[in-house]
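Re: that chain you flagged

S.,

Sorry for the slow reply, it's been a week of failed gels. I finally had a moment to sit down with the sequence you sent. For the record, here it is as I used it:
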Amino acid sequence: MKKTLQIATICMLLILLVGSLVSCNQKEDPIQDDPNEAGYFEFGNHLFAVDGEVTEATLASLGTQTKEPEEAPNCAFDSQNILYSFSGFEVETYAKNGKNYFYAIYLLDDSIVADRENIVVGASKEAVIAAYGEATDAKEGSLTYEREDYSLVFFLRDGKVTRIHYLFKVQ
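Prediction finished late last night. Pasting the structure tokens below so you have them in one place:
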């Protein structure tokens, strides 16, 4: 009986240990359920998705806002867009069917990596093309890559990325 209790205790401890190790390696993800989809950014233990629903918890997970949110009219949805500013990036939201969604993400400095391709503000035009291939639309000062649900735009000056914009295609 004593050996059975010891074995049961050891098994229980192993189960708890394995469970805690698994949970430590899982990302908290209130923003996006599938990290295998393109168009996301990683902030600490959170994934941020283009066109993800905006909640107070989502905004809080992105860090401290650097200034008060700014509102502007949205013609497409007869509502207000809101621009939230954080250190190194901004997010713009739109309202639809009583909920707010991310409309755009603006990367402003090299503190955040774009997509999974390790491109940051300051990267060379050549690095962008090597990572993403030929642009869908290449203009003086920008490279645009069209995705199914969003556009990825790299703004350039003197051959270097100055800003990166993710723009959700609103339907």
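What I noticed first: The CA atoms of residues 14 and 20 lie 10 Å apart.

Talk soon,
D.
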